[in-house]
Amino acid sequence: MVSLDERERPNSALEVRQELLRIKQQASSDTTGLDPVQASAPTQHNPPAPTPAPAPIRSTNPPFTHPPAVPVSPPPAQPPAYRQLPPITRTPRARASGILSLSAVWTPRFIILFGLMLALTVVGSAVAFNIPQPYGSANPAGLDHAVELGLSVLLILVAIGATGFVRNRLAIGILLLTALSALVAAFAFLSQTLKDIQQLPTVLAQVNPNVFSTFGLAAASLISLLWLIRPYTLIDRIILLALFGVAAVFVFLQYSGVDIDVSKHIYLLISLILLVQGVLIAAQTERVRTSSA
Question: pTM for the full model?
Fold first, then answer.
């Protein structure tokens, strides 16, 4: 219908109509196989092709796994500062070792011996001191000097007998010097006992018994402190220091008293009993410690 050649143009409106119908039929036949939605759209562009997803990158590193739980130990204790002593803690093991060390000395047999000796000296002294006029009604003297003489002789016998249970020369020397010092005190008590019995001046009355008894017992107490230099445990040294130290204190306390003073004789009895018991403990400690060394 729009051709440039006039011979090809339609001559009438009927031909134009027929030509339009033919074009319409041809267009409908061309769009019969299309999607109705796409066919109805005047202009429909094809959708872009989907972009393929990138392939996953395989890592050559091994997969991360959590390590097994490991108990974390506490940080080490900081060292003590310069010129500062570390704190001393007494652990249960240390306490147990101290008890075992003490039980090695205080065996059942030694406890029985120690108790019997203590009962003999204490009870015997108390009974003898309460006997009124033992030398007769005409003699007012008591048994105070005789008891002190007996305890001095007992100290000599214990010290000499203990030398058979020790092997160290220093220990044997301490025991013999203790016995010798006790012998000096026994000499003074013997002179006083003879005077009480006879009520007459004796040859021994020329000496001052107070000086001899004080010197002998003080020397025995101070010599016995030499046990502290032996290789014993701390608790052993504390026990020996308490016994011999208190004995020395009572010896010096009685020196200023007069013979008729009761407290003077009580001080002498306490010092003598402590010396006897202390020598027993020292000899037992020496025997146990040196045999286990």
Answer: 0.66
